[in-house]
Amino acid sequence: MSNPRMAHFHTLPVAEVHQETPDCIVVGFDVPPSLRSEFAFQHGQYVTLKLTVNGEELRRSYSICSSPLDGERFRIAVKKVPNGRASTQLVDKLKPGMSIEVMSPMGNFTTALDPAKERHFVAFAAGSGITPILSILKTVLRTEPRSRFTLFFGNTDADRIIFRQRLEELKAQHGDRLGVFHILSKGVEEDKLFNGRITTEKAAELVKRFVTDSSTNEYFICGPEQMMVNVSEALEKLGVDKKRIHVELFGTPVSTEAKKETTHATSTAFSGVADVKVIMDGREHELKVKANGDAVLDVALDGGLDVPYACKGAVCCTCKARVIEGQVEMEMNYALTDEEVADGYVLTCQTHPRSQRVVIDYDQH
Q1: How far apart are the first and last CA of the chain?
Q2: Which side of the chain, N or C, has fewer Cβ within a 10 Å radius?
């Protein structure tokens, strides 16, 4: 699902900062009327923040935890991570009344909703991976009155459960349409299924026990890489159609086997310097990009172009663009769907030319 607009940063006022857990805050932004169309978002999407820490510009993506149906203010959750420069500054120092640069919403971790449908949405989340899931959950329950939602939520212990009270309120509000099951790695439940980490075997057992519907299910997975891999493997073993499995990776991948994708490349023999035209905001820019050198995004940034990016690690899709001429190859891809890749979309932070002439259009994102 592609955004119909080019992403840009805008300065937004911080309206509220709520301490959700000892190491996690929820930040609310007020969007002025002139920017409301720019910050219209879909459930499950994220925004990128730009901040300066010790003189260095940092960009970090944070999922939206509010629903598009909640009104004009939107909220994100920020959890402090070990040695995290951006998250530490935000959690420790951000206060209402401050302003921060925020990029317009992006992301594919969503699905179209239809009030006439009756479905069972199933989500696996761990830690701060609950953030986009909460947005999806609230939107589904309000938009599809005949649908149900089941959440399996992994955490270290009960004190670190983000949005615990909000989930209890939603359960009380929606009754048997919402099921929430906590799996604690330091848990002491009699039923061992709810203790320990979410392994492949545990994920399969949870689905078999609590998800007895037909093929009308939609699955969402968000959290650390290993949990995501475990759940995806379990669902595939259970015969779930891959098109019904939506994943959102939190953090930089640590696996040694990166997901490789080749786009418009019939051969990787080209090893020279390519002429790369970049189209952005309707303007054309010519770049010289070495086939075996820096990625297109880095060359564009070095050339002074204000191209959008956030993670530079193939996890988000902030730097997404479309190849409309020539051949390229991506080193890694954890963000684009197979359909998007087949349609010519690339993550420019991972893209290298594989032909003498390449044209990449950021306006077709």
Answers
A1: 9
A2: N
